[in-house]
Amino acid sequence: MQTTRKPTRTTGRLAGAAAVALGLLLGGCLTPSTSTPPRQVDLPEPPPQRAPAPTAAQREHERILASYNGAYQDPRLDAVVNRAVEKLVAASERPDQRYRVTILNSSAVNAFALPSGHLYITRGLIALANDTSELASVLSHEMAHVIASHASMREDRARQVALVGRVFDNFGAADPDMHALALAKSKIALATFSRSQELEADGIGVGIAARAGYDPFGAVRFLSSLERQAGLRPAGQGSGDARMPDFVSSHPATPERVRNAQINARQFSGPGSGDRDRKAYLAGIDGMLYGEDPSEGYVRGRRFLHPRLGFTFVAPDGFALDNTPQAILGIKDGGGQALRLDVVRVPAEQPLAAYLNSGWIENIDGSTVEELTIGGFPAATALARGEPWTFRLFAVRFGNDVYRFIFATKHVTPAADRAFRESVSTFRRMSAAEANSAKPLRIRIVQAGEADTVERLAARMATDRKEERFRILNGLGPTDRVRAGNQVKIVTE
Hints:
Blueprint: E1 4-5, H1 56-67, H2 75-91, E2 100-104, E3 111-113, E4 118-122, H3 123-128, H4 132-147, H5 150-171, H6 176-211, H7 218-230, H8 254-266, H9 278-285, E5 289-290, E6 298-300, E7 303-306, E8 311-314, E9 319-323, E10 328-332, E11 337-344, H10 352-356, E12 364-374, E13 377-386, E14 389-398, E15 401-409, H11 414-424, E16 428-429, H12 432-437, E17 441-447, H13 454-458, H14 466-473, E18 487-492
Parallel strand pairs: 2-4
Antiparallel strand pairs: 1-11, 3-4, 5-17, 6-7, 7-8, 8-16, 9-10, 10-11, 11-15, 12-13, 13-14, 14-15, 17-18
Helix pairs in contact: 2-4, 2-9, 4-6, 4-7, 5-6, 6-8, 7-8
């Protein structure tokens, strides 16, 4: 039996048994009679205490942590977030509501709330914001979901959708198309319901932030950056985790939200009023991880490298890679081609050619199965076909694991197949020097000098599309300039 997972660090589980000795000492002011020897009383062992079963909220919390690579630990960042939450709670319609905030260790731009008042915000979203008022606009928006009971309503709707699925799965449907239609209608209802909730939460959130003393136009600035950030994503490339859509896909169209935020903000003050708290915010995020966590490997343009596991490969020309919790995904500009890399456990005695034919993917063309060597490691490849896609598959045995490359194309040509083969041929073991020199990306706060320009500062970015990312990361429009003395964010190793 094989288990599938994304290439990541190996982990071990520590299991142990704890023995508890209970001693009872009986004593007091009474002295036993000399004629009656003292008796030893044997008391029964107390029953072992069982840990209380986790609540639904605790189970959901653990699922969220697993989906987002755990919590991000940074005391300075915690302090920035907690200060903002305290001010927002005091200014909210429900100052008695308690909140618990978790910063998620994910580069995705996302934030959401549970009915219990547990708020989640990713470090990817924190990196995009430029001051505390922008962060406060997101936090107050999520608090509004709790205050207005949106989070509870959404859970109820989600349970209804799940119930529809279970009914059709358990009892079957006379017409499979009716099954799909019923599920689709339920999901549309859920999405429509959420849309009206989001716009309502925007209005409530702007009011909370303004009453807390923050610039109410922080929401306008952040949503504008969010819209531009979404534009950097290759066409067809969505959130890395389908179970947890990002802030863009789970909220209404951003231009509509920007207009809504502007209308709401004008009810409280004009632009420039309220506290932005920019200096303290930038100090809090200085040095924060940007992009992937080191334990999950790094994307550097078309190259993916995993120093801890010790391998690297380069995607074909025109591909943009996305390091998701489940796999390394890639989409070619313009669509029509994609790739996936994941890892499975395959018995050492099972030949890789036999594994390709074992049924883990359908419609294998047996005549195309061949054994080969890639990067000095045993491998096998084959073609599989399924309208409208053709798949070039590779299985590479690397240590105790088998790495699976799945290249997909809608129009198979000798040139496309050659590009896939050339890409997988770059899979190799990293040298010790390469692994040691690979460093994660971090946010650095620098002060612009007299001679600094956007172009000059952007050139220091260790990312692709340097100037675009620099402008978006710093909330700068296409023609905006930096001024000497301004603090700005750059991304470096």
